[in-house]
Description:
Number of strands: 12
Radius of gyration: 35 Å
Number of helices: 10
Shape: flat
CATH architecture of the domain at 50-152: 2-Layer Sandwich
CATH superfamily of the domain at 50-152: Potassium Channel Kv1.1, Chain A
Amino acid sequence: MKGKLVKGYGVIAIKERKYFNKKNCQVNMAMPEKSSCVKPSEECSNFPEIIELNVGGQVYITRYPTLISIPGSRLWEMFSVKNPCSLIQDNKGRFFIDRDGFLFRYVLDYMRDLQVVLPDHFPECGRLHREAEYFKLPELAKMLALKMNKLSSVGNDSCQIDLEELSPSIDTTFNFSSTNTIHISGPDNSMVLTAATGSELKKAGFITIGYRGSYTLGRDSQTDAKFRRVARIMVCGKISLAKEVFGDTLNESRDPDRPPERYTSRYYLKFTFLEQAFDKLADAGFHMVACNSTGTCTVTHDQTDDRIWTSYTEYVFYRE
């Protein structure tokens, strides 16, 4: 019995030894693989084939060869000279570029095809030219500069006046004054013409601005001092009018590249002060013709009897 027990224990000991030896072997085999993976230089040396970009909040997905297709450009510098670990990334791992997210689509089109097709009535040539200079694309900047010069020359030609048709039989002299008037004088007559500029040729139309707000109504109908909380001021109307009035303060991200003769209800302003919007509309010759507001109670506090109301308000402006 004793010998058997010893033998049994010996067998058990041998099995345990084999087991632990096998386990240690596995551990020893796994350790070099783990250590070989922890190499920051290898992790940060290469870019993936498909790259996600976050440009001013807009997400773009493109191929790595596209971004390095033009040597010397800023994108080429970012994605060929630098490594991924040195570039700024957002919380989802996309490479972040702090530029205009909606104009970047044309920059990316140019990187793909070395040409860019702009929509009709494109009003952002100047801003796109600035983006081309930032991304170090001289040929694109040159193309846009030629386009802007052509548009400006067309605008000047449309304002010219054929003075020979006005007075063909006399030798006329004329000059332009700072008040946009043309003084024409001859041996027997003189006249003064008023040249209307682009700022004076204002079109009639409506613009509606709206906002959603909230306020707290307490006991005895006492309203909280911070009653107006405006998250966003929306703009509805003809696109050309909206751009004329609000200019660069107009956020077109929800409805980009829309022709100026079309209408939209998806624009909003980059500021949240109603009075600032009113001032811009008044400066452009608009006046308020109607307004309306609705309110709904959303939350009630049992302990304080305070009620939080949400409201939607619209103001309609018109220019003759």
